[in-house]
């Protein structure tokens, strides 16, 4: 067994999100959120991107988040399975609307706080550090209907109140925090990313970047509050990561790739460096965007994050002649097909070296510790005649990516930990399917919501247990 590149105390675990796992959408005083309005099926993409306004549930549609995998009632069983694998970190999110059902109340819902205290205490019982996202694609619907969500400045105040509630209520249970999950997805999927819907003829880029400004101010305020409540708190930002490669060495393609990278990195440039980057001046002018700032905003933005977290599933590819007809619809972040790499069943590129490239770029850029908080393979899993789930394809994907992360650490990059995405099967954020499975633990549920919800260990469960026990030294 080779010497492990992973430092002592490296955090190993897995990740889920409240809206993809908890279910219980109408229990415990919880209010409806944006994700609760996103159906499975033909209308899903139009609703996610804010092109189809959906403020009411429809009786003839199926909403996967409403029951999800019922983590709300089964969290003890699920956390015990994670402990069995040896997890030292578990990433989950708090559903904003469990604490503030409408989002604009002055006082939180005690039942929601009690639920999360129980979840985090259960983690601590097994020596597992919770890594908690404050907003993982689930804005309370009342804030969307009443205020227009993040296009409205009032959201900063509502989010700051919610964040303070979390930092105070869970002090001593949680020290690792993320503000907004995949904050750059706001540009690509505005409703699921930030609760934005558009009116006919509206300047959509203006709306998106103004909303982004409000989120960035809110994130910086939350970071400031977290450090005031407890100086031990560690707060990170979260990027949907993956570098854009130029399709060719044609200079125009190289420039196109750089622009595409900046489009996504803009958010982290602000959160990690504390100011708008210089390139935004020209970009905003050319797009006709004018950011309305309040006095003091630039000062607030100086409250930078302690670490940079990110998801990595695939690298991306760009060229000067990219358009809607030649870029892949497989992922919400549009990309050209890269002929040099394999793709998953859902068309996502499989590129472990791309992870090392991305990590080197990000550390060069930010000089802050990194935390890989999502990485995994969505695939269809079959139960064989012996009742086993032999998911060698998932093991292979994770092995190669963990190896690449180890190489990045050898490159000199400080990395806090690794939480593979969907450590237990859950509802896919992109497609709403259960059949697009990521977990080490199988959940008996299908795309229509049928099944016992029983849990079953896959072959990858035992493999990951061995990886953790060896601190990443044994990937065989």
UniProtKB/TrEMBL annotation:
Catalytic residues in the record: 374
Name of the top EC class for this enzyme: hydrolase
Coiled coil: none
GO molecular function terms listed in the Swiss-Prot or TrEMBL record: 6-phospho-beta-glucosidase activity
Pfam families on file: Glyco_hydro_1
UniProt-listed Gene3D superfamilies: Glycosidases (3.20.20.80)
Keywords: Glycosidase, Hydrolase
PROSITE patterns for the chain: GLYCOSYL_HYDROL_F1_1, GLYCOSYL_HYDROL_F1_2
Documented EC number(s): 3.2.1.86
Family: Belongs to the glycosyl hydrolase 1 family.
NCBIfam families: PRK09593.1, PRK09852.1
Name under which the protein is recorded: 6-phospho-beta-glucosidase
Organism listed in the record: Rahnella inusitata
Organism lineage: Bacteria, Pseudomonadati, Pseudomonadota, Gammaproteobacteria, Enterobacterales
